[in-house]
């Protein structure tokens, strides 16, 4: 009995496939007509009217299923139209950047970093550039300003940590500042508890560090007990410098190993982070779009409509094109109730056909779209 049912389903599926191919052929004709007449691919009113009629005609109990089926079918049709029309205006900017970007990543450049000498941003910068001229700034916002104003060629900023998560301040700035990502690096981060020479662990009453480092060492710090105060500051290296020059005999800092020698400090305990595989990902930003050979990661930001299924449609497009999603981050938009900015890291070659198709179709169903760059991640 079950085999008979399955045979019927197979026959129906075969007919559905034939009709689908026939429909997509007509869609190609529609795309050609729209291209010749300069008409947009998406006709919102027509789609809404058709979905309403389909729901009305559907058998009782199948209204919502029919709606989902045809909404997906319309989505596929639009994607096919975009591919036929060849609407790749966003990709034109990318092809220009590929043509005008040097074949080799710069060996030396003026680079903005947040903090002071010895910061993890400095270590990340030295992984990206062989001979960087590093300019230090007090805040992340100042790093963006240095790039936008042309004071520095590039900037290096922490984006996320494998233990503590995302650096939320950076994502907030990314919504409003003008920049492009040209490279990223994943840096292994080992934290050390340091103090002036002659100070013992039992003397410590207050520990200074950046909030991310404190979060990454939360388990260790909890074991020190309530008698030790934890104080946040703008940077791990700045914390080390303050402890080294402050004259206190009861203060310590959490910082990188490079700060120990730099500020002539004593290491009370090494590798105090909660996880041994503690990594921070840094991005290298530029004022202009630069795409170097081998770029296989792309970052974009989108504001999607506050309506059911808007994020699903975006993710479905990635899936349909076989594009892997490495990261998805959402951030609320200031002064806009229930609206979010979504940040995506996509694993796809900038030269692939799938990438071109993606860019040509994404902007139609989002309220705002921002292409942040295509680049290589240095390990």
Number of helical stretches of at least 4 residues: 13
Strand content: 25-35%
Structural category: alpha/beta
Percent in helix:
40-55%
Residue runs with pLDDT of under 50 for 5 or more positions: none
- The secondary-structure element order is HHHHEHEHEEHEEEHHEHEHEEEHEEHE
The overall average pLDDT, rounded, is 90
Largest sheet, strands/sense/barrel: 10 strands, mixed
Overall geometry: elongated
| Number of E-state strands | 15
Descriptive report:
By secondary structure, this protein is of the alpha/beta class. 42% of the residues lie in helices and 25% in strands. Strands 1, 2, 3, 4, 5, 11, 12, 13, 14 and 15 form a ten-stranded mixed beta sheet that branches. It is elongated, with a radius of gyration of 27 Å.
List keywords for this structure.
13 helices, five-stranded mixed β-sheet, alpha/beta, 15 strands, 379 residues, 25% strand, ten-stranded mixed β-sheet
Summarize the structure.
The protein is of the alpha/beta class and 379 residues long.
Question: What is the element layout, followed by pairings?
Answer:
Elements lengths: L1 H36 L6 H14 L5 H23 L3 H12 L9 E5 L5 H9 L4 E5 L2 H9 L5 E8 L3 E2 L1 H9 L3 E9 L3 E4 L10 E5 H6 L1 H6 L5 E5 L2 H10 L5 E5 L2 H5 L3 E4 L9 E8 L10 E7 L6 H11 L3 E9 L7 E8 L5 H10 L5 E11 L1
Helix pairs in contact: 1-3, 2-3
């Amino acid at each position: 009995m079950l085999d008979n049912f399955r045979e019927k389903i197979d026959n129906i599926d075969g007919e559905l496939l034939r009709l689908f191919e026939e429909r997509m052929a007509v869609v190609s004709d529609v795309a050609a007509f729209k291209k010749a007449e300069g008409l947009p691919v998406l006709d919102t009113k027509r789609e809404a009217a058709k979905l309403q009629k389909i729901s009305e005609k559907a058998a009782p109990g199948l209204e919502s299923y029919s709606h989902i089926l045809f909404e997906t079918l319309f989505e596929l049709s639009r994607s096919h139209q975009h591919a036929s029309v060849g609407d790749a205006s966003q990709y034109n900017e990318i092809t220009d950047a590929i043509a005008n970007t040097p074949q080799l990543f710069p060996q030396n450049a003026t680079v903005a970093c947040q903090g002071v000498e010895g910061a993890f941003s400095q270590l990340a910068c030295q992984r990206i550039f062989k001979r960087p001229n590093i300019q230090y700034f007090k805040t992340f916002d100042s790093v963006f300003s240095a790039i936008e104003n042309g004071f520095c060629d590039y900037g290096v900023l922490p984006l996320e940590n494998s233990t503590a998560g995302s650096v939320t301040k950076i994502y907030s700035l990314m919504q409003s500042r003008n920049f492009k990502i040209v490279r990223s690096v994943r840096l292994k981060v080992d934290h050390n508890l340091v103090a002036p020479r002659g100070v013992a662990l039992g003397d410590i009453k207050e520990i200074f560090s950046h909030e991310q480092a404190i979060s990454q060492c939360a388990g260790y710090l909890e074991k020190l007990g309530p008698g030790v105060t934890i104080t946040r500051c703008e940077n791990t290296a700045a914390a080390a410098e303050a402890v080294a020059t402050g004259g206190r005999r009861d203060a310590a800092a959490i910082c990188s190993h490079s700060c120990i020698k730099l500020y002539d400090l004593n290491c009370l305990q090494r590798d105090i982070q909660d996880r041994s595989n503690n990594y921070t990902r840094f991005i290298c930003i530029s004022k202009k779009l630069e795409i170097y050979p081998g770029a296989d990661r792309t970052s974009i930001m989108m504001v999607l409509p506050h309506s059911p299924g808007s994020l699903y449609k975006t993710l479905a497009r990635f899936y349909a094109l076989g594009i892997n999603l490495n990261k998805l981050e959402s951030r609320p938009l200031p002064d806009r109730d229930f609206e979010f900015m979504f940040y995506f890291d996509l694993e796809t070659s900038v030269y692939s056909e799938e990438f071109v198709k993606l860019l040509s179709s994404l902007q139609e169903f989002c309220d705002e779209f921002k292409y942040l760059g295509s680049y290589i991640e240095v390990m």
